[in-house]
Amino acid sequence: MTEFQVYFMLGKDHILDYANGYDHILFIVALCALYITRDWKQILILVTAFTVGHSITLGLSTLHIVNVKADLIEFLIPLTIFITAVSNLFKNENNLSGGAMQMNYFYALFFGLVHGLGFSNYLRSILGKHENIFTPLLAFNLGLEFGQIIIVVLFMSVCFILVDLFNVNRRDWKMVISSAVAGIALILMKDHMFWIQK
User: Fold this and answer.
1) Average pLDDT per block of 10 residues along the chain, 198 residues long
2) Which residue ranges run through the membrane (predicted)?
3) pTM score, two decimals?
């Protein structure tokens, strides 16, 4: 296996690791909760915006240009999830044009910057004193993107089955998913606030 393949698989496995990467999975679910399968173009733009955001800080942090305290990042990540999920509750899922859509892009891009700092802690730990980090960084980022696409496809498949095939009300779907994600994020925030205070 080439170096590129190794880091690609590490990136993919990191975001698909539901035991350790569930916070990033929750954020992607929160981003997608407003949409159904026919909105796939908007979902693609959102996921791309998130990728652009976390790619920037993943690169800057891995190169030691940006350095943020790990405990703070571990608190900010669930905060981004909470804000995104709660804002879903006040949006009309049948009218996602204009300002509401622009705000979703902002969340994906800006909060992606925060998540990139979280990814970088993991990547730096496995890079060690690697001399050339361009290939590992690129491969890891592409692996993360591939993992995100898998999460989106799985989530939207469940959405298609329930909303499109079994006629679950779209608003109910949005409310249940967003409320559950917000609740989990609140618990994570509380847990990480305890560590920050320590």
Assistant:
1) 91 88 92 92 90 90 86 93 95 72 85 91 75 85 93 96 95 97 95 64
2) 20-36, 43-66, 72-91, 103-123, 143-163, 175-196
3) 0.91
